[in-house]
Records
---
Amino acid sequence: MSRGRTDGSQKKRLVASICAVTIFIGFLYVYGGSIFGSQNSGSSALEYGKTLRKLGSSYLGADDDNDGKDESSSSFGQGDEEDNIVPKSFPVCDDRHSELIPCLDRHLIYQLRMKLDLSLMEHYERHCPPAERRYNCLIPPPAGYKVPVKWPKSRDEVWKANIPHTHLAHEKSDQNWMVEKGEKIVFPGGGTHFHYGADKYIASMANMLNFSNNNLNNEGKLRTVLDVGCGVASFGGYLLSSDIITMSLAPNDVHQNQIQFALERGIPAYLGVLGTKRLPYPSRSFELAHCSRCRIDWLQRDGILLLELDRVLRPGGYFAYSSPEAYAQDEENLRIWKEMSDLVGRMCWRIASKKDQTVIWQKPLTNQCYKEREPGTRPPLCQSDADPDAVWGVNMEVCITPYSDHDNKAKGSGLAPWPARLTSPPPRLADFGYSNEMFEKDNEQWRERVDKYWSLMSQKIKSNTIRNIMDMKANMGSFAAALKDKDVWVMNVVPQDGPNSLKLIYDRGLIGATHDWCEAFSTYPRTYDLLHAWSVLSDVAKKDCSPEDLLIEMDRILRPTGFIIIRDKQPMIDFVKKYLTALHWEAVATADDDDEVVFIIQKKLWLTSGSFRETE
């Protein structure tokens, strides 16, 4: 057929074809768009069994999904027939969402036109999507994703494909944050203020405080650290060898993915910011807070951010500050130093040591200095009925948290040195009406349970298979304590509507955060190797939140080939089993334990066909 021919029937067929295509596209828009609720992101979904490339069998030695089985004949709870339908597959989110953090999604802020004060960092705080805008799709790994490098090697190198962001390597090249090296990103151990290695910087800090052997752990007395504006968490990573565990904290800001790099390395870290809300940690949690050029204006709002650090520091705790304000002699830095010195003086902090480019302040051990201040001195003491441990969604206050009568008389936290601290009854145990015998019984019970868990997983794991663990309902932290001899760390999560036992966990020398499991957790996708869910799903169901949403959130958090240990009642276990195929999970083991059921699951490694590459 020659170009430009004007045949009437040809035109009719062309018009008919265009109409058909238009109708088909419209169908996809209406029904495909409903997969994502009312989102306007233009995301597309890839259905399992169509354009999804599954790699589970090659890594797990397992058969493919049980596609032929009908698993929708029963459901958890009561409800309409429509609500009880179990999907055969969940859609896969668009590849653009491979790093989605639902409650820290700046696109959501723009779409909902939230009016936030950027100067107060409100845009880096949690803002969760309303129910109709939640993603009910599975987060895909990035192109070429590989099973992460194992600890301890991962402290110093990760696969570039797993976090395909190299701008920090270029931006911070003179500070030795990270360096591209072939298929990997390596971490020389540098930081903004310690270009030549965190280990030397840490030793110099211990020397400033006259700690024996230049060891910052001070013979076990210094165990928990908060690193504010942590970068890629090399400071916290190098403290681990000194038996110090650090909560490395940074927002999802212009240095995007810094916390993702930290967790990929196997270093404890959390996405958060000193903004308007309290940090999700109880009072008197840390022996040391650290800021190395963290670019925080500590003088703003009458020192409210320093007062938040004061709240979470233990009696006699330290704040190590490495920044130009501590040493520079230009007019502006001298002004800031003078005003900051005046502020911390009114807060009753004293300089423990000042050398070169670092100053270390120390918080008082008792209330004596507070009582000796002139009347009307600011910042004032907090009201006596204020709860310093209420943190979830609670605004920071411009006030100093005084010690209780008990702590004031004790002249310190009264904690045993590490590692005895882990198994010694915490002084704040009495706040909950718990006896020492109850504490010891809880320890013994979880030791037995953890031994059983590892026995059930023995055919699937090696000594270095698991590194990052989350206990989704940590109670007193005895699950984490039972893992002391394994080369792992645990993010102990305490639900915000239950007993505020997180302070007991910190008193044991462990770390964690408060959270509401009706919402997404503040972490990147694929950041934990094991999730422990003790009655969490049942608790969520009782609150009229969606257990199905929580399963999707658990899948987001969990690394491919990672494990979930669900400990719950039989009806909830049955409910979860119906979703295994849709979530691309595999049952590993089931066992009865007391009046509960233990169900262990492994997540398969899968890649979308659009992101598939050969993996090692």
Note: Confidence is low (pLDDT under 50) at residues 1-15, 24-82, 612-616.
---
Amino acid sequence: MADPVELMRRICLCFPPRLSPTQRSRVPPPQPQCLGVWARLRFPGSALSLRCHALDASKPSAVRGEPSEEYDDDEEPYFSVTSSRLSEVDYLGESTKGDLNVRRRHLDALGGNGKSTLHGPIEEIAWKEARQAETLLSDLGIADPLTAWEGRAYDYGMANLKSMGFLVDDLEFDPDLVIRGLIMDKVKGNLVKADRFGYIKRVMHGTQMLPTRAVSEIYGRELVDLRKEDTWEFLNTLFSVSEAVMFMQMVDKLDQGFVPAELGPLDYKGLYNAVSKALFRAHVEGQLKSEIMAEPERFVEPDPELPLALLDQKEAGKRLLLITNSDYHYTNKMMNHAFNRFLPNDMGWRDLFEMVIVSARKPEFFQISHPLYEVVTEDGLLRPCFKANSGGLYSGGSAQMVEKSLDIHGDEILYVGDHIFTDVSQSKVHLRWRTALICRELEDEFDALIKSHAQKEKLVTLIQQKEIVGDLFNQLRLALQRRTNSRPAQTLAATCMNDQELTESMQKLLIVMQRLDEKIVPLLESDGELFNKRWGWLSRAGLWDKSHLTRQIEKYADIYTSRVSNFLHYTPFMYFRSQEQTLAHDVHSYSRDQ
């Protein structure tokens, strides 16, 4: 085994050879996944062990302590420490720059920014440093570490705002401003993206994204708690996108002083209430539904495989129900348009379903028993009834009535819906039904993930290089810290290094990490842009972690997919099992076995 001190000299002083493409591609590409029904999909990745914070060189403190202590030129510490609280950016906590800087005087002595000392592309240098650092760490004994719908809803909502007196003529719908899964802060006038724990990662005030430092100042001690309905409003469905776009645009108007005084003093919460009321009027007055019923082809994208997927299920003995909050006239029009032309042998959509319930009033449908009515004519005439029968068409009722009439209960039922709260969570929490969530945006994200694979691979590779180099740097930093207090380092090799070897080695390793950040930071900032330039991925918050939306899906949906017709790619007898849920220590256990 090579001498650790000699290896250290090689790491810091030798120039790396040019690496082959094979050597550069250490991270295997992810296996493509079928865009079908995914059983509790787990997005791979683990939390990084290092965080990056930009540094404020105007407020340094010496490694040895006392920020204000003065030193002679010969005694001045090589490094300065800057608190992460002073950072302007931390790139979603994923960059690996630490809080330690090489002091400018010593950096200049190495050749400006160190590039004259460390020649060549930083990726090649990093490969050499990472590979040799990995070896040295081993020697040291260190363990290996849908737009039309929202657009028209927006138009009707804005028309209602205008009738209230708001100035909205210069505004238009921007479908890229908002994605599902974001959360409106009705008190501060913000739109936020949170991770699975509720920590806020990105924020937009009005229509402007806020820098990371501002996010930290506003929400540093606050977590998203969806139970606080007076503050937070979760964007559960695509339909809520129009409401969020309206609110964010009107926040700009309020900030700019363009809300007429005659509307009274308004804060952000009052403004949200006005927007919500305007959009609610569009629904209650039936403006949008009337337009959709008149021209369904403008708003409904037919899926020829959907009726066939349900037909397979029915012919396999499954008992299908349609439960909708829409009234009979709207339901009949939409189902005729979307189903009848694709069904064989003159079948109609009603022939697929054992029972149809309209005007269900979800989510109350899952908790409260409402009066049950039978729809007895094509005009929608209702008559009271007390029992639901197979083949019936009903209005109202309750989930308990469905279970009783079909003599099935709990996990014998798979409920499919596209609203996390109204559909999935309520049926799961109150009835223990099995649940499937429909999330159409998955298809766009899946395509974007494939297109961004090369960039993601490059980013992960750079971070892995940085972690290895950083691990060695931290070991030397600890050795220097212990030496300052007259204590030995963790290993004999580090203890035997003199002060000059330690500091010069640390400087050069730190320069490698700082230059790697120049590559890592722009890749982190652009990660997810192919899905949405402002918010990044739907399913992720940062490079590795899950978004709050993904956590809600994981918590309440047994399976989720982009469309019901994906069931057609499986037999109706398929049993979907969840993937193995791994723990942090699982990987280490497997690696020891290997």
Note: The chain has 20 helices and 17 strands.
